[in-house]
Design a protein that fits this description.
Elements lengths: L43 H4 L32 H4 L18 H4 L10 H5 L17 H12 L11 H12 L2 H13 L6 E5 L2 E3 L1 E3 L5 E3 L5 E3 L5 E4 L2 H6 L7 E5 L3 H11 L9 H4 L17 H13 L7 H8 L4 H13 L4
Parallel strand pairs: 1-7
Antiparallel strand pairs: 2-5, 3-4, 6-7
Helix pairs in contact: 5-6, 5-7, 9-13, 11-12, 11-13
Length: 345
């Protein structure tokens, strides 16, 4: 099997509520959760020198009003604070997965390791601002943890907190804990909840504090322009209740999927190579190359760009770098949208 690393990776968003973010030259703003270029006078990577909690799950949510939330078929009644407990987030659907290891369900407060389930959800699907990790192989997962730990996996966004705090968490894990998490998420089938819609106008939206695009209240529309905008169909369900089944839609300009299919299936007349050469039939993975079909489009696009400019440079990333070297921002958008449109199962 060719040793080419794919676009999917293990990550955990720990974005701060008030972070000011820096744009790398050429960074596709839409992939990193921006409408306008952010100020360039702050660098979170320089601040993240110690292990410390930051507010991942609740950024941009309303204050806790004490109201208990429920989900159809879900377990119990919980406030938004209880739902997003850093060291014991609510598991709405325990029947979706095997028993979680303690490091996944609760983390370790003494070492500043939040529960994996906080950002990635118990079913491992995550949201666009972080990584979908279910359905990845044990070897791939462990490779990524090693890359984080060894300082080989970062991001183009100097203030995207996951890139600067995930290495600290990876370093704090014991080898056995990392293996437990890897084996757990490898055993969980990826839950398909992402779709792609081509459109000229889309629901009005804005980024929240964690750089997740959220639709605004009401029926107002805005021009999409030449970008990919991914957001939850129901922002309260996805962000406040943290429903791991909550669907997301990636909006792209008309013609994007056709272009993405051409690049992914033919290599675009030498611009890249066919994705299935390494990621397997249906892009469902060939161990240790990850499954990428059906994953979040903006996440996939970030990985393509980070590999292209070298901020993600782990064990196999240099080989992927050659694959993405000639891709334009439009190419990355098209590829990410097409791959997301594929069935993960």
């Amino acid at each position: 099997m060719k040793k080419v690393i794919g676009a999917l990776a293990v990550s955990c968003v720990l974005a701060t509520a008030g972070a000011v973010l820096v744009r790398a030259a050429g960074m596709p703003l839409w992939a990193y959760g921006y409408v306008d270029p952010p100020p360039a006078d702050s660098d979170y990577s320089k601040k993240c020198t110690v292990q410390r909690p930051v507010d991942c799950a609740r950024g941009g949510t309303p204050p806790d009003d004490g109201r208990k939330r429920t989900l159809p078929g879900g377990t119990g009644e919980w406030t938004v604070t209880e739902i997003a407990n850093d060291y014991g987030p609510v598991d709405w659907y325990p029947g979706d997965h095997p028993k979680m290891p303690d490091i996944v369900a609760h983390g370790d407060k003494a070492r500043g390791i939040r529960a994996c389930a906080l950002c990635h959800f118990p079913n491992g699907t995550g949201k666009p601002e972080n990584a979908p990790v279910s359905g990845t192989s044990v070897q791939y997962f462990m490779n990524q943890m090693a890359d984080f730990k060894n300082g080989l996996r970062h991001t183009s966004d100097k203030n995207k907190a996951n890139a600067w705090e995930m290495p600290l968490m990876a370093a704090a894990l014991t080898p056995e804990e990392a293996k437990q998490a890897a084996e757990y998420f490898a055993a969980v089938k990826y839950y398909p909840k992402n779709k792609v819609v081509e459109a000229d106008v889309i629901p009005k939206f804005a980024p929240n504090a964690n750089n997740l695009f959220l639709p605004a209240a009401g029926s107002n529309k805005v021009p999409l322009g030449n970008r990919l905008v991914e957001m939850p169909d129901d922002p309260d369900d996805a962000q406040n209740i943290r429903n791991p089944h909550s669907p997301f839609t990636a909006y792209v300009p008309p013609g994007t999927l056709k272009k993405g299919e051409m690049l992914a299936t033919t290599g675009g007349d030498g611009k890249t190579i066919r994705c299935d050469v390494c990621h397997g039939p249906g892009l469902r993975g060939l161990d240790p190359v990850p499954a990428i079909a059906g994953r979040q489009a903006s996440y996939l696009a970030r990985q393509l760009y980070d590999m292209q400019i070298g901020t993600r440079r782990g064990l196999w990333s240099p080989l992927m770098k050659d694959v993405v070297a000639k891709l334009t921002e439009d190419d990355m958008m098209a590829l990410a949208a097409y791959v997301t449109s594929l069935s993960p199962q």
